[in-house]
Fold Aminoacyl-histidine dipeptidase.
Amino acid sequence: MPGTEVASELLLISKTEEPELKILDDSFEPKAVHDHFMELTTRYHPSGEENQVREYVMECARKIEGVEVIHYDSEAKDPGERVIVLRRKGSGDHASDPYVTLQAHMDMVCSPDKNIFPLKVFGYLDNEGAKWIKAGDTDSITDPKKGTTLGADDGIGVATILAILEDNNLKDYPIECFLTVQEETDMGGAANFDKSLLIGRKYINVDAEVVDTIIYGSAGGCNVQYEGNLALSSVPCGYTNLKLSISGLLGGHSGININSGRLNAIKVLTEILIRFNKRLTNLDVEGEGIKSYDLRLISLQRDEDPISNKIPSCASAIIAIPGGDKEEFVNDFTVYCEALKVQSQPEENLVYEIKEITQNSLDEASTDALLCLLQQIPHGVIHMIPGKTSLVETSSNLANIALQNMLINASNRSSDANSMNALIQIQKSIGELFKYSVGTSDSYPPWEPSNSDLLDKAQNVYKEIYHKEDAATVIHAGLECSYVVQKYDGKIDCISIGPTILNPHTGSECLKADTVETFYSAVTSLIQELFQKNA
């Protein structure tokens, strides 16, 4: 945003003490998966810019005996053309068996920005003695601002597929490999590839994030955009401009983490600004109580890449208040934020800040209308699955705001079409009240759960390895499986599995090291089970 920071600034930051954890190397088993994954962490591969990883996959594929390149176009621009399809024919008793398809995506969410490569990867032991793999400064274990995304989502999937192609114990089985692009933005590779490329009808997606769980259904979704107009005015004489920032929030996946009580930085700032706005919350108090103020809004923005599938973890607003109220406002803001930290566990790393700057503002009416609109826009869980109260059916993530062209973006998810339509109608009605138009885009289908031979065999394998009677569930997130199942009219058996990854899409992303080995054992055992000949 335009504006000049003055030398005298008020800086208010809160910190918490955390126990010291032991830093280790980045090793984990199997070695082949580790080595491929570590190579991927050195290569630039944000969504839509995966060419360095595409080239690496092809370098590896061309060295593996028996692997045939079915589709690879090094110059392709369209995401559907930028996918990679590899096959290794069966041999011996399995020469005529149908293929099993393995699928992963080659892109990753880059947080805090795209300038994080090569990733700085390390291991550490938690307080219970478990080893985790992470990226960023070692201090990021307790301070997410010093961390980056790791890219285990879905670099571990890509590395696992390459290791399986190299595994001599699996060389007789017919394997088809499907590597996609742009999963983290619009699932463009899975949505637009030519359906004639795949011939396998047992399809294993390796992009799940809980090692002892099998996913066999996922939510559909769409993006929602509010568009309106604002009136500007000059800041009244004698007013002071202050920049308020909220950061250090957990953020996280806007589907998987939407029901875990995590704060949305845009919503936090909105509630603060409404509470301190005298026209909306008229509180004239004496003594130590928090007051309200003649407040004008200058800007409000998310201070990170506006990724729709990530809960905003940092945001800032610039406001104007009477100059004589500055000291009192700063004190009240401090008290409010300290109380918010106590009331909003597990957000103990919340950081707040005030800086004095100069800039013009919105007028009073636009300030108030925008804040009230942001307050009313749905965020969080809307509805749970009937009869399964632990599973989210419908949710929305308030993802971004851009005052320059007055756009507000949200990301909806639902496994039920009627509930999705009802949510969109609510959003449109709220927009109409404030004279904002509301439209939708980038919709993707749900993956309706169904029983299958693949699921049954996976359940048997997981029961043996993880001792779970029922390891299958549906997930409140968009998976590429939804496009694949839709493309083949449901005539394909599909599951999604993977090792344990915590806090994907954030600077706290970490991979539980020992689950990579058990996951590899599970997926290779499942492949062997699928090709087991009946006596």
User: Anything to note?
Assistant: DSSP finds eleven helices and 25 strands in the chain. Residues 326-343 form the longest helix (18 residues).
